[in-house]
Design goal:
Layout: H1 6-20, H2 27-34, E1 38-43, E2 46-51, H3 54-74, E3 82-87, H4 99-104, E4 106-107, H5 125-132, E5 143-146, H6 153-167, E6 173-177, H7 178-190, H8 196-204, E7 209-213, H9 222-237, E8 241-246, H10 258-264, E9 268-271, H11 277-290, E10 296-297, H12 299-307, H13 313-329, E11 336-337, H14 339-346, H15 351-356, H16 363-374, H17 378-382, H18 388-404, H19 409-415, H20 421-437, H21 441-451
Helix pairs in contact: 1-3, 5-6, 7-9, 8-9, 11-12, 11-13, 12-14, 16-18, 18-20, 19-20
This protein binds adenosine-5'-diphosphate and magnesium ion (MG).
Adenosine-5'-diphosphate binds next to helix 6 and helix 13.
Length: 452
């Protein structure tokens, strides 16, 4: 081993990952899970890689690891390396509890989301107070937080995890999105090993605090929901804490069984309302102050932003970032952003396009967001090019424009270099077929649409 230079190994690994792009046909999977693989350890001729999560570990193990090994060994002299893949969670923890190890007791918890940087107002007071009670004797188990998107549910879950971890460093905590949980169960259900589900149940039943985000996505996943509620019931019965979030009031989740709905109301049920304009201004001012930049927004510029926001804090953050991006890339002489400047930033540059298609938004934004998500060029998506990696994202852009934005087939055809409307219909049908097979695609489309 000492004959081989570590830098050479790292460099060869980097190049191998680049080469893998040619053989991984799911661009999204490649970007999210293959490019994020890192070398965890090198022991003689054994190289262990760290995957992002169980889901990617399984797929990489079954489909790509031998290819990585083959490509890597082709490019490195003398030694034949053997590859393994694991996840951070599966690496045995050291016995002594250093600061980092303590944080490892809070799996999946993002330490940047805390109560300190969470702004409280009338709109979210009950949810915040209930969340903060996690470390007190008054906590009523379970806590259910319900609010529409962008109102701080995920932030609060992480803040609860961090606060609990600070007070009880040896308690086991887990944050997981219901989506990732569903994926983990789905893989176990496909596993030949009958014990796979039991192993997962045992794993989840050990957590003293389980934070489960966005359970509304389990609407059409009856089997997975059943398993989760089994774990939930056992944990609560054993005095372990559970906090849930949903962007829909569970009473309106028609696919959820009545007994499950009533369990959501068995502890504390807290909602976050949309902040009003005054509160949004307050939040915007605090967020701007926290950025520590030398620019100020005039009162009417701030009003302009707030009036274009329907009470979504995530969107508000996006708007503020857009202003700061503009200010830093244009090196403004005047530190005050006034109404005229703000209009320049937010008013669509492509008014002709908007008028041409009779829409109230620029359809190019959809194409740009899809292109960004799939790592391809937006103009190439609109072009006649038939390169393989463009086909799927192009179909998805057409699907969003038709199904979500109500653009006509003919107008979509015009936008995509004059394609015939029958081509657009076929493309959209293809996406619909994929949606039936691929559980992730719906989420990908929702995420892209949300950014628009
Ligand atoms: P949700 O999960 O409800 O969709 P998030 O928790 O992801 O929303 O919040 C969206 C963004 O807005 C995050 O960056 C979060 O930090 C921020 N945010 C939401 N509510 C607040 C708040 N009350 N104070 C500060 N930041 C907030
Ligand atoms: Mg969230």
């Amino acid at each position: 081993m000492d004959k081989i230079d570590l830098n050479l190994i790292r460099e060869t690994f980097k190049n191998t990952i680049k080469e893998m792009k040619q053989i991984v046909d799911n661009v999204d999977f490649f970007d999210q899970y293959i490019t994020t693989l890192i070398i965890h350890s090198i022991d003689n001729n054994k190289i262990t890689l760290l995957a992002k999560n169980d889901f990617s570990q399984q797929i990489i193990n079954n489909n790509y690891l031998s290819k990585i090994e083959e490509m890597f060994n082709k490019n490195i002299p003398l030694i034949n390396f053997e590859f393994f893949v694991t996840t951070k969670e599966k690496i045995p923890q050291k016995k002594e509890f250093t600061k980092n190890n303590i944080m490892a007791m809070a799996e999946g918890v993002n330490k940047n989301y805390t109560f300190t940087n969470f702004i409280v107002g009338e709109f979210n007071r009950k949810a915040v107070l209930s969340s903060k009670s996690i470390t007190s004797n008054n906590f009523i188990n379970p806590l259910f937080i319900c609010a529409s998107v962008g109102l701080g549910k995920t932030h609060l879950l992480h803040a609860i995890g961090n606060e609990y971890n600070k007070k009880f460093p040896f308690k086991l905590i887990k944050y997981i999105s219901a989506d990732d949980f569903a994926r983990e169960i789905y893989i176990a259900l496909c596993d030949q090993n009958k014990m796979a589900i039991e192993t997962i149940k045992t794993k989840y039943e050990k957590y003293d605090l389980l934070l489960i985000d966005d359970i509304q996505i389990l609407l059409n996943k009856n089997k997975i929901r059943e398993i989760l509620f089994n774990i939930f019931n056992n944990n609560v019965a054993n005095g372990k804490y559970v906090v849930w979030t949903s962007d829909t009031d569970p009473d309106n989740l028609d696919g959820f069984e009545q007994r499950i709905k009533s369990r959501f109301h068995s502890g504390i049920f807290a909602t976050i309302k949309k902040p009003d304009k005054a509160m949004l201004k307050n939040i915007a001012n605090k967020k701007i102050k926290n950025l520590n930049a030398d620019i100020v927004l005039s009162e009417d510029a701030l009003n302009y932003i707030v009036n274009r926001n329907n009470g979504d804090i995530r969107r508000l953050e996006g708007q503020i970032n857009q202003v700061f991006f503009f200010a830093s890339s244009n090196s403004l002489k005047n530190p005050i952003i006034d109404l005229q400047t703000i209009k320049m930033i937010f008013e669509p540059s492509n008014k002709n396009e908007i008028k041409k298609y009779g829409l109230d938004f620029d359809p190019n934004i959809v194409i740009e967001q899809v292109a960004l998500n799939y790592g391809v060029n937006a103009n190439m998506l609109k072009s006649k090019s038939r390169i393989g990696k463009l086909i799927n994202p192009r179909n998805i852009a057409m699907y969003i424009l038709r199904k979500k934005c109500d653009m006509t087939y003919a107008h979509i055809g015009q936008l995509f270099s004059g394609r015939h409307h029958s081509t657009i219909i076929t493309a959209i049908n293809n996406v619909e077929k994929l949606l039936n097979k691929n559980i992730d695609l719906k989420n990908i489309i929702e995420k892209i649409y949300y950014k628009i």
